[in-house]
Amino acid sequence: MLVLSRKRSESIVINEDIVITVVEVRGDKVRLGIEAPREVPIHRSEVHDAIRTEQTAGEESDAAAVTTPEG
Questions:
Q1: Residue 16: left (phi > 0), alpha (psi -120 to 50), or beta?
Q2: What is the pLDDT of residues 26-56, one digit of tens each?
């Protein structure tokens, strides 16, 4: 993991087309602004985990439907 120190209004650039800017620092919270192409999905980690869990459950359901013998 790369760890960087940034102050308010400072940015980092990822792959020429993603810019992350520190918008505000208040206590133990940091607000970030993210500029990225629309086709790049951006989620908080807990939302990303929920999406992956839902997708995995859907894939398992589809696999069960295919492998279940017909009655």
A1: left
A2: 999 999 999 999 999 999 999 999 999 999 8
3-state SS track over 32-47: EEEECCCCCCCCCHHH
Q: Is 21 in contact with 11 (CB distance < 8 Å)?
A: yes
Rounded to two decimals, what is the model's pTM? 0.73
Q: What would the two tokens of residue 40 be?
A: 């790049």
d(CA 5, CA 20): 13
Secondary structure of residue 59 in the 3-state scheme: helix
Tokens of 45: 């980690």
Could you tell me what percentage of the chain is helix, strand and coil, using 3-state DSSP and rounding each to the nearest 5? 30, 30, 40
Query: Tell me, what DSSP letter sits at residue 70?
Result: P
Tokens of residue 71, six digits: 């009655």
